[in-house]
Specification:
The protein is mainly beta. This is Serine endoprotease DegQ.
Length: 334
């Protein structure tokens, strides 16, 4: 785990009257001011010098400095950054690095012991312990793609981009956010699962950006009332509300009323989970969709196409940004 210091330029807030040439003649205040911030990062590839951190840690960075445990300091290159998952990838040219081995975030269970490592308040590397409080957490208005690990391990400002590891020392998450009404830790922190972070990292290395996929449907969570209306016994999945013409889903035969229950033989919990799986799948790859129609399980294979949707502002937190895409009925677009 490394410490990250970011030097960036931020626009100074000025009275709009100062934009008038007359006022600027006498009140020629600088339009930008220098801003310094601190965060954390995790070395994930010692040979290539790759470091995972958060998008919000390095957003608008002019210069990024990385300090290792042995106090060596390097200027980092920003390989790429993804606002929707709050993941960024840095690269440093250094030898004798040690990477954290990657774990399986999908194998985590509520109650598992975890350790958070980071650089809180710029004090230096700090270790705190706790448990996994919840999995697949979403709906906290932090990011467009939400599948957070919730933990009660102390995560404070500056821990962003740090490591969430198991007691075996395996990296299972990248710390990203806290719920802090008074600006401090209240025992509710969140981390991006390493499975999602790794998928983002692969695309940032290959393309410098994340090219999201889609299959051309709108879906909603399978609620108990909806399951009863569709005469379905399952209590999980995503109900298809509409199917776009000439989309991969349309060509595969999906239609409104179908209930998607698994992707590539892995059960999905709801509409957000489905969007995460499809959105981070490689464009052009094939996925196997298992769904229910008339209480009969069916399986179909379809090819992921590129999502050309332009991001629009969604509900923002004060510290992080993201967007959520819905149709007019409030269904999640996948």
């Amino acid at each position: 785990v490394v410490n990250i210091a970011v030097r960036s330029r931020a626009s100074a807030e000025t009275n709009p009257l100062y934009n008038d040439p007359f006022f600027r003649r006498y009140f020629n205040l600088p339009e930008q001011q220098q801003r310094l911030s601190a965060g954390s990062g995790v070395i994930v590839d010692a040979d290539k010098g790759y470091i995972l951190t958060n998008h919000h840690v390095v957003a608008d960075a002019g210069e990024i400095a990385v300090t290792l445990k042995d106090r060596r300091r390097f200027t980092a290159e920003l390989v790429g950054s993804d606002k929707a998952t709050d993941i960024a990838l840095l690269k440093i040219d250094a030898d004798k690095l040690t990477a954290l081995p990657l774990g399986d975030s999908g194998a985590l269970r509520v109650g598992d012991s975890v350790v958070a490592i980071g650089n809180p308040f710029g004090l230096g590397q700090t270790v705190t312990s706790g448990i996994v409080s919840a999995l697949g957490r979403g709906g906290i208005n932090v990011e467009g793609y939400e599948d957070f690990i919730q933990t009660d391990a102390s995560i404070n400002p500056g821990n962003s981009g740090g490591a969430l590891v198991t007691t075996d020392g395996l990296l299972v998450g990248v710390n990203t956010a806290i719920i802090a009404p008074a600006g401090g830790n209240v025992g509710i922190g969140f981390a991006v699962p390493i499975a999602m972070a790794s998928a983002v990292m692969e695309q940032l290395i290959e393309h410098g950006e994340v090219r999201r996929g889609r299959i051309g449907i709108s879906v909603q969570d399978l609620t108990p009332d909806l399951a009863e209306a569709l005469s379905i016994a399952e209590s999980y999945g995503a109900a298809v509300g509409s199917v776009e013409q000439d989309s991969p889903a349309a060509h595969a035969g999906l239609r409104a009323g179908d209930v998607i229950i698994a992707v590539n033989n892995r059960k999905i919990t709801g509409s957000a989970d489905l969007r995460n799986r499809v959105g981070l799948a490689r464009v052009g790859s094939e996925v196997e969709i298992e769904y229910l129609r008339d209480r009969v399980r069916r399986t179909v294979t379809m090819r992921i196409e590129a999502d050309e949707t332009i991001a629009k502002p969604g509900s923002m937190s004060s510290r992080l940004e993201g967007a959520e895409f819905q149709d007019a009925a409030g269904n999640v677009v996948v």
